[in-house]
Amino acid sequence: MSNARLIDSFLEMMSAERGASENTLTAYRRDLTDWASVIGKKDLLTVGTGSLEGVLARWSKKGLAPSTAARKLSAMKQFCLFLQVEGLRKDNPAHSLRGPKQGRPLPKIMSEADVNALFEAAEDNKTPKGMRMLCLLEILYAGGLRVSELVTLKVSATNRRDNCLMIKGKGGRERLVPLTGAAQRAIAEWLKLREDMLPNNIIAKDRAKTFLFPSSSKLGHLTRERFAQLLKELAAKAGLNPAKISPHVLRHAFATHLLSNGADLRSVQTLLGHADISTTQIYTHVLDERMRELVETKHPLAS
Question: Cβ distance 94 to 77 under 8 Å?
Answer without folding.
Answer: yes
